[in-house]
């Protein structure tokens, strides 16, 4: 901190953080006011604009959750995993830590930034996927001949799955090209997101 370079607090432009509930088969988000998870009515429509990888989990023995930073490439970018509260738990490449992460109750996540209509306004959002829901997302990515970013993604239903005695649901992604207006609006929001991400990244290096 100095007179010419004061410390600035970077505020996330992301309006809402969503996740997929495999047990209920729907998109949901955590409401800070009611301190409950709220299910989102279908259809859920968004346009992805950027993707990252991270780790999240909860350790029952420690009775505490943990999380990592977001990276583009887990093969050569360092993940720093911290307890909720800030104490560093471990740091390194994902491949070197994945067994320990799993044993502690952690999961690999894909963090998808995008745009969606929130309260009748186009806003930046984040969708976190893990496990079978992430596999469904990866399959949707592979099915395209072009990058999935910029396309209109709609979730209107879920697919029932079973593994042994466990029943769960995975999202069904419908993909369509954007209109010229949707593309233009997504690009504008992506510029806002990249400005925030650049500022956040520079503070950690």
In words, what does this structure look like?
The chain is built from 3 helices and 11 strands. It is globular. Strands 1, 2, 3, 4, 5, 6, 7, 8, 9, 10 and 11 form an 11-stranded mixed beta sheet that branches. With 205 residues, it is α+β, with helices and mostly antiparallel strands. Helix content is 23%, strand content 45%.
List the helices and strands and how they pair.
Blueprint: E1 16-21, E2 26-31, E3 36-39, E4 44-59, E5 64-68, E6 79-83, E7 88-92, H1 94-103, E8 106-118, E9 121-130, H2 131-143, E10 152-163, E11 166-176, H3 180-203
Parallel strand pairs: 1-9
Antiparallel strand pairs: 1-2, 2-3, 4-5, 4-8, 4-10, 5-6, 6-7, 8-9, 10-11
Concise structural overview:
This protein has helices spanning 94-103, 131-143, 180-203, and strands spanning 16-21, 26-31, 36-39, 44-59, 64-68, 79-83, 88-92, 106-118, 121-130, 152-163, 166-176. It is α+β, with helices and mostly antiparallel strands. The protein is globular and about 50 Å long.
The number of distinct β-strands equals: 11
Mean pLDDT over the full residue set = 92
Question: Could you spell the SSE succession in H and E letters?
Answer: EEEEEEEHEEHEEH
Low-confidence stretches: none
Return the structural class. Answer: alpha+beta
End-to-end separation? 15 Å
- Number of DSSP helices? 3
**If you compute it from the alpha carbons, what radius of gyration comes out, rounded to the nearest whole angstrom?**
18 Å
Portion in helices: 10-25%
What percentage of the residues does DSSP assign to strands (E)? over 45%
Q: What form results from the Cα inertia axes?
A: globular
- Sketch the major β-sheet: 11 strands, mixed
